[in-house]
Here is the input.
Amino acid sequence: MKKRNVIIDCDPGIDDSLALMLALSMEELLVVGITIVCGNGPVDMGFANAKKILQRMGRLDIPVCKGAERPLKREYVSALETHGADALGESFLPEVPGYEQPMDAVEFMERELKKGNLSVIALGPMTNLARLIQMAPEAFDQIEELVSMGGNFRSHGNCSPVAEYNYWADPDGAALVYKTAARSGKKIHMVGLDVTRRIVLTPDLLEYFKRLDGELGAFVQAITKFYFDFHWEWEHLIGCVINDPLAVAYFVDRTLCEGFEAYIEIDTEGISMGQSVVDEKNFYGKKANGVILTKTDSLRFFKLFFGRLLKLKEQKLDLLEMLVRP
Ligand code: RIB
Ligand code: CA
Here is the structure.
């Protein structure tokens, strides 16, 4: 089977880290590199956390390039209250020294995209992609497919009544990326809160994971405990929504989500700053620049998530049928 080359642009981040672990466990993917953007935590923290994940997965062969330290225009606002003081659930895993790369995220993206046959899975604010457009628009146009965890259609926001964090944290960056996609006829696959809110890692699922692999399960527990507590405190949810891994799973298996094509614009100011405005009824008569995902199958996602991370055949994961929330 031909592997698909991807760059994962992310802000690790608890769910970004689970997404990286999943991506590195999927034989369908060749992770050409990881680029870091300021988001859940400052960019240096995201760099440090990405190295910790690569070390745990035995993949410190994959380049990790640091990108934007702040959004395109607005001030930087982290999500450390959600991801903990270390942006990795206050697991405070040992630092991985060095591993500095000779180029920054945008230079790396430009160099790799110009080789062709490369897609991008964006799991954080879209600042690096926006800067790529500003510095090397022809490289952006060469992105084979762009899957973005971000935005929301009918689901409420998580940073304001109408805005999701990745697009709210850098609305100008997201707006430029969607506008550029519209200009170049590209469609961004928007894996937003409408589908990711269905992907809830529960205590039972975590316990099952630990029973199947105690060591890896303990690692996942270490980085998610803070996230469980956050979800209980702020959303009275027993479990935690793991947004980013769905974007990786969807990139590999498009049947995991259903949706529709439409024109999307990102609002950049005022009370609805960061809102992904989806022109479902085509009021503006503009060509679609997005695929908005609205339905997903959480059981099929967790079968893939567990199966790949634990290297188990799906039929061995029979308990999932009982444990996964429909
Ligand atoms: O709104 C959820 C998104 O914002 C996720 O990607 C999370 O990691 C944060 O980046
Ligand atoms: Ca993220």
